[in-house]
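Good morning,

Attaching, inline, the backbone tokens for the sequence recovery test we're adding to the shared suite. The designed sequence is right after.
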């Protein structure tokens, strides 16, 4: 997997799962990785969490966000899972653009959902 840049990882995901046009389904990734996804009742500033575990990792999404926003957050959290493997837990609170890793996740999610080419 190309780890150098979120755009390259997004291209790799598109190629691997042969996504052609939106909407992009997360189902193929769920089939490949031991991750469970659930919805949580959080305040508006919380977008999601990613908790890495030995057997099954989890991604939590804010059920109060729009469907599109939750989809974006899902791919954001998946990038934490795929690439930021030196940390066990990510708690993603808006505004999340301030930190480098959060920006990487956002770039990845944007390029998975809205590829440039
Ligand atoms: Zn994050």
């Amino acid at each position: 997997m190309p780890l150098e840049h979120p755009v390259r990882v997004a291209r790799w995901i598109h190629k691997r799962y042969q996504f052609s046009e939106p909407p992009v389904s997360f189902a193929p990734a769920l089939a490949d990785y031991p991750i469970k996804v659930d919805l949580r009742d959080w305040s508006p500033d919380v977008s999601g969490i990613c908790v890495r575990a030995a057997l099954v990792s989890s991604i939590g999404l804010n059920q109060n966000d729009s469907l599109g926003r939750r989809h974006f957050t899902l791919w954001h959290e998946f990038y934490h899972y795929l690439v930021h493997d030196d940390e066990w837990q990510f708690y993603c609170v808006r505004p999340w653009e301030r930190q480098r890793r959060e920006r990487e996740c956002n770039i990845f999610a944007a390029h998975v959902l809205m590829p440039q080419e």
